[in-house]
Write a structure and sequence with these properties.
By secondary structure, this protein is an alpha/beta fold. It has two domains: 88 residues, 2-Layer Sandwich (Histidine-containing Protein, Chain: A), CATH 3.30.1340.30; 125 residues, 2-Layer Sandwich (60s Ribosomal Protein L30, Chain: A). 47% of the residues lie in helices and 19% in strands. The chain has a three-stranded mixed beta sheet. The chain has a three-stranded mixed beta sheet with strand order 5-4-6. The protein starts with a helix and ends with a strand.
């Protein structure tokens, strides 16, 4: 009886050891795969083992090649299959698309309604809606930077017009900042009467020249 009992115990021990060894295979392969990823400086990627299969997930730039990395993981002893579940990003294309989206949204804002009291940087009552829309647009994407440009007509000394245009540009910046936009995303610039878009011979022309413009800063 004892020989049978000993043989049974030995068999059970061997099965338990074999099961433990099998359980350790995925963990070992995952560790080795992740080590290969780290050595290749792909810090955004993660390796997950399912038995002898390795799944690589994460985000890489369009211009980055992962062929060599995938080959090195496939060459790890014990690995049967390497699955690619990578997300490819193209920052340049995204930037172009975001710029188009911003400029399109900006064109929908009636900036011509932003006005000021005569000789002052205080807004007229009709200005608020456009300014709030601009602040909302800026808050929709914290990667956007813009230049607020103030312009005047040619009435009065140019030194006064230049100062007034700067003050008005800063007034717009302050309004947007007070609506939750970081100040370092905004640039205020005054041009005085140096960049008219209409003649200054009539009130209608001068009214058009007294304006706020917004330009996208790359």
């Amino acid at each position: 009886m004892w020989p049978w009992l000993i043989a049974l115990i030995a068999g059970a021990s061997m099965l338990a050891f074999a099961a433990l060894s099998l359980d350790s295979i995925p963990a070992s392969l995952q560790h080795n795969a992740q080590e290969a990823i780290d050595q290749a400086n792909f810090n955004s990627l993660t390796a997950v083992a399912d038995g002898r299969d390795i799944t690589i997930s994460g985000t890489v730039l369009k211009q980055q090649s992962v062929t060599e990395l995938m080959d090195s993981i496939h060459d790890i002893q014990g690995v049967r299959l390497v699955r690619d579940e990578l997300t490819i990003t193209d920052p340049e294309a995204e930037h172009i698309q975001n710029t188009k989206h911003f400029l399109n949204a900006l064109s929908q804002i009636n900036l011509s309604s932003v006005g000021f009291q005569p000789g002052s940087s205080s807004f007229t009552s009709d200005s608020r809606r456009a300014l709030e829309q601009l602040a909302h647009l800026m808050n929709s994407d914290d990667r956007i930077r813009i230049r607020i440009e103030g312009h005047t007509d040619n009435t009065g000394p140019e030194s006064v017009n230049m100062r007034l245009s700067r003050e008005r540009a800063h007034a717009v910046v302050n309004f947007i900042v007070n609506n939750g936009v970081a100040a370092d995303r905004l640039i205020a610039q005054g041009y005085g009467s140096t960049q008219p878009i209409d003649e200054n011979l009539t009130e209608a022309g001068r009214s058009k020249n007294r304006r706020i413009e917004v330009s996208y800063v790359n």
